[in-house]
Design goal:
This protein is mainly α and about 450 residues long. Helix content is about 50%, strand content about 10%. The protein contains 19 helices and twelve strands. Strand 3 and strand 4 form a beta hairpin. Helix 3 (about 45-55) runs parallel beside helix 6 (about 90-105).
């Protein structure tokens, strides 16, 4: 077109105009046939988030990730999404995953583990529990009934009951974010997508509940049976004032960076603290062999994937803002302290109380105090009042431990070693465990 436009003949430019008008006509006709909205109309934030969750439902998604993806704060994104849909983004994601799983359970012969993984859940046990919560039956029950109904006669109630797993259809998000549906009944204009999605989720939940009966009390054969609790519960008030019912004998515990306390109390966590995907507390690995890793900042979606029946965090900072409400929706959550550096003895006793192992914690602490006393007496006989310091040496700097924190607490309080003046001086700098030490001070 450009070459013809540059030609001196008038007919050349006329030809270009004709081609251009033909192109514009074809483009507008295509838009009209697709039911597209004018280019000037942009999809709303909530529509964009819904489309993203629908497309990436099988991936590991957290509120923090969504907030970064759409350049909004977690609080604002959650508030605006819930105001327009009635669900938090994570709750909506779960709904999408359950619906996708139901479609696969009805339409394929894939294993439960394969289906769980295909919708973003690595733990089939947790997936089954979540599926039953939302549909009123286990995934195995659902798959068996779907298989039976594919072979058996047509029954109207069956169609309604399995409406959450409608025929697999192909979807794509067009350039204007309208949702196009092929193999279904009609195309959905983007302006109606949001309201229809919310209404559809509510309607499907009601239909499944109506046909499934009372999910918590009905056995697979239809007989009503009493629900026997797995364990009794205890009410615990944590360090920040949250009153929470916790299992008397928790079986699946996450206590990030508190694994020391779990080990000495005979409890093996379902996940252990880590940084950068592979950095762990090496000295605990003999006792934590085979325990998978969880990021140190405990993303709610990752916590949920481990299906814990108790979450213990070491500081109030980790449940600040709306974090506590996010965790509390997943499992009972307890903060054991309010300080940046809590007293480990009190932490041990608190963890022991939460785990219903208070006496065991007291005994562990008493045994430790006796061992520390013996070591303290031996050191005094061997070195008298000589001072000592713990140093952290890197390629570019040297740090000294605070006299009241980390190994400083062990050296100067438990073992009774004399505190060097340089350590006393450095300890006044800030509240960090390790303080920078100049080469002059080191000398």
């Amino acid at each position: 077109m450009e070459q013809k436009w540059q030609q001196p003949e008038a007919l050349g430019r006329l030809h270009v105009k004709a081609i251009f008008y033909q192109f514009v006509h074809a483009h507008l006709l295509q838009k009209q046939l697709q039911g597209a909205q004018p280019e000037t109309e942009k999809p709303t934030l909530v529509e964009q988030v819904m489309a993203y969750l629908d497309k990436h439902h099988a991936e590991q998604i957290t509120l923090d990730l969504l907030a970064k993806q759409f350049h909004y704060s977690v609080r604002y994104l959650t508030r605006i999404f819930k105001m327009q849909t009635g669900y938090s983004p994570i709750d909506y994601l779960i709904k999408v995953r359950i619906q996708k799983a139901a479609e696969r359970l009805q339409g394929t012969d894939a294993t439960l583990q394969e289906i769980a993984a295909s919708v973003g859940y690595a733990d089939p046990f947790y997936f089954t529990r979540l599926f039953k919560k939302h549909t009123g039956m286990t995934s195995n029950q659902y798959q068996k009934r779907a298989s039976t109904q594919r072979k058996g006669p047509y029954r109207p109630c069956d169609k309604t009951e399995l409406s959450i797993a409608a025929q697999e259809i192909q979807r794509y998000i067009g350039e204007n974010d309208s949702q196009q549906v092929f193999g279904g009944i009609r195309q959905v204009d983007r302006k109606t997508t949001q309201s229809m999605a919310s209404a559809l989720i509510v309607a499907l939940s009601l239909l499944v509940s109506a046909c499934a009966g009372t999910p918590n009390t009905a056995a697979p054969n239809g007989n009503v049976q009493a629900v026997t609790p797995v364990s009794t519960e205890r009410t615990v008030t944590d360090a920040v004032g949250h009153e929470m019912k916790v299992p008397s004998q928790p079986q699946r515990v996450i206590a990030s960076y508190l694994e020391d306390h779990l080990i000495v109390l005979g409890v093996k966590p379902v996940a252990q603290w880590s940084v950068k995907g592979n950095v762990v507390q090496q000295y605990l690995q003999k006792d934590l062999a085979g325990v998978p890793l969880i990021p140190h900042d405990l993303p709610p979606e990752v916590v949920m994937s481990y299906n814990p029946d108790l979450l213990i965090v070491d500081s109030a900072e980790m449940v600040a803002g709306d974090r506590y409400s996010q965790y509390a929706k997943i499992t009972p959550t307890i903060a054991v302290g309010t300080e940046k550096n809590n007293d480990w003895r009190q932490e041990l006793l608190t963890v022991g109380d939460v785990l219903n192992k208070k006496e065991e914690a007291k005994k562990v602490l008493a045994d430790y105090e006796a061992k520390a006393k013996d070591a303290r007496e031996q050191l005094k006989k061997a070195i008298g009042t000589q001072s000592a310091a713990a140093l952290w040496v890197t390629g570019k700097a040297v740090f000294v431990v605070d006299e009241h924190l980390s190994s400083g607490d062990l050296l100067y309080k438990d073992l009774g070693l004399t505190i060097p003046e340089v350590v006393k001086e450095a300890s006044k700098q800030n509240d960090a465990n390790w303080k920078p030490l100049s080469t002059e001070k080191l000398a």
